[in-house]
Design goal:
- This protein has 156 residues and is mostly helical.
């Protein structure tokens, strides 16, 4: 495969992950459907991480920063998926460790993506803007959940 094929593979994987992530949020009313969409999102996220990691070895130009940004984008999502599958909720002990590590990964992801934005060439810069936007929404969501779980009147 050529570098361009690897870049398009990464682009397609990230778009597919974003689509199924959106579908998992849209199907929140139906519990069984949402669990299926979340499982599909996790599988596609794993495939995306594998494709980005493989691309690091084959892309030699400055476009190699696109897979690095994708890995920085997906690292907090991986930790969130692990917490989701383990069943973390408001009653779980020591959730602050999970939140602190998520916040640190998100901030590191913001820094990586922002730094790599200057290095990536062409229209692939739009992918990095998309990744920053989705991680910013994720950050706000985590803040809301963290505050909600720590409210004194919620008996979780």
């Amino acid at each position: 495969m050529t570098e361009k094929n690897f870049l398009y593979t990464n682009l397609g994987c990230v778009i597919t992950f974003g689509l199924f992530l959106f579908l998992s949020l849209v199907t929140a009313e139906s519990d069984a459907t949402q669990h299926v969409m979340i499982l599909i999102s996790e599988i596609i996220g794993g495939i995306t991480m594998a494709a980005a990691a493989a691309s690091l070895f084959y892309i030699k130009s400055d476009q190699k920063y696109l897979p690095v940004s994708i890995l920085g984008f997906l690292a907090p999502w991986l930790l969130y998926a692990i917490g989701y599958e383990l069943g973390f909720d408001g009653s779980t002990n020591h959730t602050w460790v999970w939140f602190i590590s998520l916040y640190l990964l998100l901030v590191a992801g913001f820094i990586f993506i922002r730094y790599n934005y200057r290095k990536v060439e062409g229209y692939f810069k739009l992918v990095l803007v998309f990744l920053l936007f989705i991680n910013a929404i994720f950050f706000v969501y985590l803040l809301f959940i963290h505050i909600w779980w720590n409210l004194p009147f919620t008996n979780s």
